[in-house]
Amino acid sequence: MTDETTPLTASGSGYVALPPYQGPTYVFPGGVSPRARRSKLKQFQCCIAVTFVVIVFAALGLALWLSGSAYDGSSSDSNADGPSFFFVRNESEWETLAGTKTPIPDEPESVWALRHETLEPQAGAQAVSAGIKALGDREILEEGLQPSAINTPQFRHYRSLSTNPEARKLARRGYVENQATLDIAQRFNYSKQPGRSNIGRGPVIVLPDPMLLRLDCDFNERYRRSTGVCNNKQHPRTYGASMVPYRRMVAPDYADGIAAPRASHGGQLPPARQVSLSIHRSSYETDTNFTVMLAVFGQFLDHDITATSLTTAQEGESIDCCARSTLAQQHPACYPVHILADDPYYKQYNLTCMNFVRSAPAPTGRFGPRQQFNQATAFIDGSMVYGNLEQRQRQLRSYINGTLRMFITEDGRELLPISANPEDGCNRVQMTRQGRYCFECGDDRANENLLLTSMHLLWARQHNYLARGLHQLNPDWTDERVYQEARKILGAQLAHITYNEFLPVLFGRNLSEAKGLLPAREQLDAPDTYDPLVDPSIANCFATAAFRFAHTLLPGLFNVSRDNSTPEAMELHKMLFNPFSLWAPHGIDHALLTASNTPVLRVDRFFSLEITQKLFEGTAEDRIPICGLDLVSLNIQRGRDHGIPAYPVFRRHCRLPPVDTWEQMALAVDNATLESIRQIYDSPQDVDVYTGALSEPPLEGAILGPLLSCLVSDQFMRLKLGDSHWYERKVGPQKFSKPQLAEIYKTSLAAIICRNSDGIQRVRQHLMERHRANGNRYVNCVDLEGFQFDFQPWSEAKAEPQLHRAGFSQAMTLVRLFTINSTNGALDHGNKASVAN
């Protein structure tokens, strides 16, 4: 085997390497006879001529391929195996993505498909009455249901998709609208035809209890609203706000055109569990370039911008669709995952059903197909730290110098406020007896796993760090002013880490730069990027499929070793709803080091068994069946529940080469993957987008494939361009001053961790990436840019002596050192280390 660095020399009819290499023989006059030299020279000239001809024909073939001939579906076998072909195809798709520098326009909503008689008020009133009756019947049914038992896998899954009271109210309206649409469609004989779109956007629907629509906006406000409203002048209530329907990149694909989960266009869709077993089987191939911190930060960010509302019973109780009661099976929100009798894992538990409850329908104010809504604001604003509603934000504040309410341990450490609710799916009797509880914060999902809880604690401490610094610099500021300013800075720091550290890993730095997704640190005078015509609302396919790619990153075992000499690992499922180690000194340090020292798996179609079998698995102390859930099956089922169209639809929307036939799909995925897909899907038009997108090989220099890069980058372009409070804005009362922005540009995840851990002293500069001998080395925290945040640009004093400024900086450093000393040392690569005074 040869490569570009292997020396070659002629030998008979072939080439062999001759160490040590002395160069081609024909250039040395004394090495061979003149005749031999002439013969060798002729051979060399002939090789050059042949090579030139081959290059010409290759260039011609490449030009024809780039013009689209390779995607006509006529042939794929000859090229499917060649790695060079994949590189060329990948490069072509990279150029397509890089050339898309603005968000792709969403597909227009289809026109209302029914006759004009349906627009008459009487017909609408009758449909609304039918919808109200259907809601009443459902609530009567729910009175006889028993919720899932606490600490069962399905109950913990329900808790991980918590629905707040405001969302439950809206879901009731959405259900009435949905049922009213079904009623009017039935009365006017509507049925979806094969290959046709949904029923379409219908007339305004009038309910007997109209929602209050009054909204007073001051578009000169310095700070964001907690609910995300008043961000866009033309669409103040909807663009990016919480409690609004997800945006649709393409029209939904419901089996009945209105609400029934997506179905096959010819035969039957394979059960989600079968897809998981056949295509997304287990694999343990790690990506040594990146760490689990990439997935942890990704989940933390995801909870800032997405929170799908789940259907619940009247008072928010869980729904058990796999209960033996026939009433449970009749609940209209039940859509359980079917488990085959020969399932290699669940057959030992005699299970044929995996609990799955449909997402709550969103009210739209019109007749039309079912939509789902986002409980979170779309903006990167730290809402998972503070909450999406005013009431939640008030509950979390201390109202003392702008700080958040925290629990102070006996040794002076700040922890999140405790949750004393014994039915939160997290608290355990054994732990509460020891004085250890789960926690409360801005997002109900914070206790879902230890590493996520650690990230919540880290950023709550960061807020208080900012608030104390602002208060000390401006003692005349009110509690409200300090709180809002600290909240504004924290949101900006989150956004900066996202676009400076996270996204370049997903897309590669070159593609990120081409799409304008890197911070403009060196361009403080660059034009303002805000575009009020861009809707930043989260796309349904992003929340339901594309941004769930991180689940494939998660390994089965995590490196929880506290020193380099004694390896120690913990299974993933044992970290779920188990944040109790944070109560111990250096608990947050060990969790963060676990995330930064454990390599991730590759972004591909393979998943750990911890994900496909043991999700929210029970323990012996829970006294429940131990088997867990399959997250991949739930993800696929959720996509069908939301009417997310198939894989080929999104490829066309992203202007990528089509995959409408098996021959075309052979050009997008490798042969083994294609064979697995063809074995269980009847047609490419049936392939779930989650499965198809994960099956694509990554782009050059990125970890995501073409379709995931398109869907994810489009959303993050919208979050930047469509946010009037974006941290890099150049005009308006929301903007930071240039000195303030320059300080925010120094932010890194490493600096945030150094500043707010119990005692971490050394870190890698890029924590989402692995240590490399020639880069990303360990550095002392005090040497990190941004470790010592300079509050001076936020000073409103008329004159600030330089001595005072220096004294303030020294005081903050002393506070940091005192905190470290009070926790008995620090961690260096997981080892305890003394701190010099």
From TrEMBL:
What Gene Ontology molecular function terms does this protein carry? heme binding; lactoperoxidase activity; metal ion binding
Record-given protein name: Uncharacterized protein
| Superkingdom of the source species | Eukaryota
The Enzyme Commission number assigned here is: 1.11.1.7
Keyword set includes Ion transport: no
Question: Could you provide one GO biological process annotation from this protein's UniProt record?
Answer: response to oxidative stress
Residues that span the membrane, as ranges: 44-66
Record has Phosphoprotein as a keyword: no
Alphabetical keyword list? Heme, Iron, Membrane, Metal-binding, Oxidoreductase, Peroxidase, Secreted, Signal, Transmembrane, Transmembrane helix
| EC class of the enzyme, as a word | oxidoreductase
Provide GO CC annotations from the record.
extracellular region
Q: What is the lineage of its organism?
A: Eukaryota, Metazoa, Ecdysozoa, Arthropoda, Hexapoda
As for subcellular location, the record says: Secreted
What's the short name of a Pfam family annotated to this entry?
An_peroxidase
Give the binding site residues for heme b: H551
For this protein, the record's InterPro entries field holds: Haem_peroxidase_animal, Haem_peroxidase_sf, Haem_peroxidase_sf_animal
